[in-house]
Amino acid sequence: MTSVWLRYLTGADIDSLGVTEADIVGAVEDVLGDHGRGQVVFEPRTHLVPDNGGKGHFNILRGHLSAKQVSGVKVVGDFVGNFERGLPSEMALILLLDPDTGMPRAIVDGTMITEARTGAMTAVGAKYLARPDSRVLGHIGARGTAWWNVVLLDSLFDFAEIRVTSKRPESREDFGRRLSERLGKDVRVCATAEETLDGADIQVEASRLVEPEPLVRREFLRPGTFLVPYGTISALELTLLDDVDKVVVDDWRESQSGNPRFGALRPQLNAGLLTADGVHAEIGDIVAGKKPGREHDAERILFWHRGLSTTDVAVANMILARAEASGVGTMLPYR
Questions:
Q1: If residue 109 lies in a helix (H) or strand (E), which one and from where to where?
Q2: What residues are paired with 216 via a beta bridge?
Q3: Taken in order 247, 58, 147, 11, is the CA torsion positive or negative?
Q4: DSSP character at residue 105
Q5: Looking at 119-212, which runs of residues are DSSP E strands?
Q6: Nearest-angstrom CA–CA distance, 258 and 169
Q7: How is the chain split into domains, by residue range?
Q8: How far apart are CA 317 and CA 334, in angstroms?
Q9: A Pfam family in this protein (predicted)?
């Protein structure tokens, strides 16, 4: 019988490959175009909620990229209190598979990939939906994907002002300091959501709430605002959509899937305030050129992304190709 080996890539292996911000954004933008052209197989996410006293849950995401002939499954935990143990809130593993034989090709540390592809989704959404002259970023949240949101957005817009906040003062102060060092510009650390968001051109809500709380309010959405809310538990004022001109999602089916508690706009969905008729487009249709993105400067646009398995597979597959070319990783015998 033919022996089968697979490559195991740790976080340190991935760090050694020199993957750039442009590489990650490019991989995500490319696969979003594939979505719009119908060149992916995208399965609904499922949740596994252990009997652990509410400490956290797991998300299981599955997808296939037809153009690149790779399939993948990601298991990622969402454990808000992990910071108390010095651990990331979201830790993940991605299994890449050969769709012709079912053979496993690689096991990849998906923790950085989860954070980076989420930030890249925010950045690609802004590329098509924010005003090109956006100068002020307001960001709620300081852990996990927050870093990549700010860094990748700034790589596209070179903001004149960046404002950040989070629930814990020590967390937001450290976040602002690290961002300032990384970006080479001042980052304003704010005490409240209002101070952070009000008047910002691009607004990102990546909070880690345990119960819904209206941190993002209607009056913060000035003409021309681009808003990206994607906290697991909603941080939006229930009637906020009354002041939004366009709603864009990553995938409408995915917006409705999973536990009805989870998702930034699930209260609006559950109350019938967001329906299919109220969604302008999926982001893949915009990237593929099938539907328009921003059409005038005054539009207030909301982009809700819950996380596409295909973006995980695309970034992991790009990293695997780099690793194979460089001989990076540990080869493991499968059988």
A1: strand 104-109
A2: 236
A3: negative
A4: E
A5: 136-140, 161-165, 188-189, 202-205
A6: 32
A7: 5-113+310-333, 118-307
A8: 19
A9: OCD_Mu_crystall
Residue type for position 301? I
Residue 1 has pLDDT above 70, yes or no: no
Specify whether the CB–CB gap between 208 and 143 falls below 8 A.
yes
End-to-end CA separation in angstroms for the chain: 9
Residue pair 142/193 in contact (Cβ under 8 Å)? The answer is no
Q: How far apart are CA 24 and CA 21, in angstroms?
A: 5
Give me the CATH code for the 5-113+310-333 domain, please.
3.30.1780.10
Which is more confidently placed, 15 or 213?
Answer: 15
**Structure-derived torsion over alpha carbons of residues 137, 141, 142, 143, reported in degrees to the nearest 10:** -130
CATH number for 118-307: choose from 3.40.50.2300, 1.10.10.10, 3.40.50.720, 3.30.930.10: 3.40.50.720
The three-class DSSP label of residue 229 is strand
Tokens representing 64 are 């296939």
How does pLDDT run across 204-249, given as a tens digit for each residue?
A: 999 878 888 889 999 999 999 999 998 888 888 999 999 999 999 9
The C-alpha atoms of residue 120 and residue 217 are separated, in whole angstroms, by 25
CA distance 115 to 69: 24
Contact, 209 vs 235, CB < 8 A? yes
pLDDT in tens, 122-139: 999 999 999 999 999 999
Mean pLDDT of 309-325: 97
Decide if 268 contacts 214 (C-beta within 8 A).
no
Structure-token pair, residue 34: 């594939």
Torsion sign (Cα): 171, 177, 180, 181: negative
pLDDT (tens digit per residue) in 38-61: 999 999 888 899 999 989 999 999
Distance between CA 153 and CA 125 in Å, rounded?
10
Phi, psi at residue 65, to the nearest 5°? -105, 110
Full-model pTM:
0.91
At 162, phi and psi to the nearest 5?
-125, 125
